[in-house]
Amino acid sequence: MLPNVKILATGGTIAGSANSSTQMTNYEPGVLKVEDLLAAVPEVADYAHITAEQVSNLGSHDIDDAFWLLLAEKCRQSLASPNIDGLVLTHGTNTLEETAYFLNLVVNSHKPVVVVGSMRPGTAVSADGPLNLLNAVRLAGNRQAAGRGVLIALNDQINGARDTSKTNTSNTGTFRAPDLGLLGYMINGEAVFYRATTRKHTAAAEFEIGPLAALPQVEIIYGHANQNRVLVDAAVNSGAQGIVYAGMGMGAIHKNAAPALIEAQKKGVVVVRGSRTGSGIVPFDSKWTQECHFVDADNLNPQKARILLMLALTKTNDYQEIQRMFGEY
Predict the structure, then answer these.
(1) Is 90 exceeded by the pLDDT of residue 324?
(2) Do residues 9 and 55 touch, judged by C-beta distance below 8 A?
């Protein structure tokens, strides 16, 4: 019997439309409907019983917290149904890694959840969306994918939501996990896994978003040479409950920004120290943790550290408890 897979379509390049088949930039994302995506790859019907819902038609650069809360509720409702074996989300690639990690922390289910997109619009010659979608459907219907957290499936590769980022502006192999590598491959549509994450996710996560109308405000401040304190002060004055400082190297903080961050922490703002490098660890128990009560981001990149901090702040603002979460998720 074929698995039952539901597709939640949100827009993005995979649903993009351009003026010609050779136009790969400056196209309009989110134009095509989920019915159009399925019509481009009718083979999906050979591998799963499909139901589909058009949640939005967004370019993912415009996604906000309200969208995440809506999408998480859609996922919860879908996965709670005994008639759904797995879930596929079509999504723009600009913030795909962020949505995937958010869902990785709030989707309370062992069932497969696969986030998929494309780097070429649906109207392009040699568009990558149809095969990506077919692979995502086959992956979501595969019992081997259960319990592995939210997965990202593009370019015949299977990646984990926590460790994966978009690394190239246009190449179809853009999603990579720089430090830890991919989880597996899709080979002729079959999932072959080589590793699994050891960090908590999905059904093992502690975060509840059901009653939330909004998420805490958390801003990212990018560290750089000749920095001043203006952006830190602006974040605090705008009501930020948390700040992720994307530091230089192993999370180094510019001397002009440090006093503002220390003052922010004393006012109750939780400060997380990350890195702008794109790979590597910002280790725990630094002098910033011991003396200033900052939280160290481990190997989460700034945009994912922001997501974990937002969810942590829905439960506590104690820096030690939040540091525990950064060590577990």
Answers:
(1) yes
(2) yes
Global model pTM greater than 0.85? yes
Residue 192: strand, helix, or coil = strand
Given a contact cutoff of 8 angstroms between Cβ atoms, the answer to whether 39 and 15 are in contact is: no
Q: How far apart are CA 113 and CA 158, in angstroms?
A: 12
> What CATH architecture is 218-328?
3-Layer(aba) Sandwich (3.40)
Residue 77 burial (C-beta neighbours within 10 Å; 0-12, 13-18, 19+): exposed
Rounded Cα–Cα distance for residues 218 and 241 (Å): 6
Could you tell me where the DSSP H helices lie in the chain?
A: 34-39, 65-80, 96-106, 129-140, 230-237, 258-266, 287-292, 302-313, 319-328
Q: Provide the pLDDT confidence category of residue 164 given band limits of 50, 70 and 90.
A: very high
Name the superfamily (CATH) of residues 4-204: L-asparaginase, N-terminal domain (3.40.50.1170)
**Amino acid letter at 172?**
T
**What is the average per-residue pLDDT within 288-307?**
96
SS (H, E, C) 204-232: HCCCCCCCCCCCCCEEEEECCCCCCCHHH
The active-site residue out of 10, 13, 90, 93 is 13
Structure tokens at 227: 């920095």
Alpha carbon 13 to chain centroid, angstroms = 16
Q: Which residues contact 304 (CB under 8 A, 6 or more apart)?
A: 97, 98, 101, 162
Q: Is 13 a catalytic residue?
A: yes
| 186: phi then psi, degrees, rounded to nearest 5 | -100, 115
For residue 263, give Cα distances in angstroms to 36, 67, 232, 260, 266: 53, 32, 10, 5, 5
Residue-range domain boundaries for the chain: 4-204, 218-328
Q: Span 49-75, mean pLDDT? A: 97
pLDDT for 285 beyond 80: no
